[in-house]
Structure formats: structure tokens, C-alpha cells
Amino acid sequence: MPEAQVTEVVAESAQSFEDAIRTAMAQARARLTNVCGAWVRRQRRVVSGGLVAYQVAVQVAFMPV
To answer: Which domain holds residue 41?
Structure first.
């Protein structure tokens, strides 16, 4: 039986942390098969020129085919 593998996906949003997490998960589902879990490892606000962006790093577990 294959073991789950874990990869990290980093995503950013101008709206919110929640939107950044949704973006990260959409990226993961587009690239990976059989996603079976996710953990938010890091959240940070990135300020550049007075604009704030919400960045997340999400570890995603998946079962390789």
C-alpha cells in the first residue's frame, strides 16, 4: 500500500488569509492526485508600498498514483 507524500504550496491573496488558503488548495488539487489532508504551516502579512498581501504556506498530503 503506498504511503502519503507531503508537499508545500505557497499562495498569496490581497483579500484575506482564508482566500490565500483557498488559492493554495486549488493549486494543490490542480497539480496533485488524491489530496487527503492539509495543514497551514505559516501565515504572514506582506507589506510593500503600503499594500498588504496575505501569504500562506500549506503542507498538503496526497496519495501518489
So the answer is: 5-62
